[in-house]
Amino acid sequence: MKLEKIDILVKVSDDKNADVILNELKEYANDLELELIRKSIRAIGSIILKVDKASKRAVEILQEIVT
């Protein structure tokens, strides 16, 4: 269910809701399920490309994930 939700979150992301979506994806990226982690990280990357204003926050989240 969460995997499908990630696809939807990327599609609906915009300047107004990107921060909330990124925070949710950050939580998914800290899950134990490997596929959910991979898809969450890819989705964060997609949001970087889609929502210019969210780029800085998205990069910060990716840095937090890998450290």
Q: What's the helix-strand series?
A: HHHH
The rounded Rg comes to 11 Å
Which structural class should the secondary elements be placed in? Answer: mainly alpha
Give the amount of beta strand, in percent.
Answer: under 5%
Give the rounded overall mean pLDDT. 96
Tally of structural domains: 1
**Quaternary class:** single chain
Number of DSSP helical runs: 4
Cα(first) to Cα(last) distance is 27 Å
Shape descriptor reads globular
Estimate percent helicity. over 70%
- What summary fits the major beta sheet? none
Query: How many beta-strand segments?
Result: 0
Low-confidence stretches: none
Characterise this structure.
This protein is mainly alpha-helical. Helix 2 (18-29) packs parallel to helix 4. It has helices at 2-12, 18-29, 34-50, 55-66. The chain contains four helices and no strands. It starts with a helix and ends with a helix. 78% of the residues lie in helices and 0% in strands. The protein has one domain.
Write a brief structural summary.
It contains 4 helices and no strands.
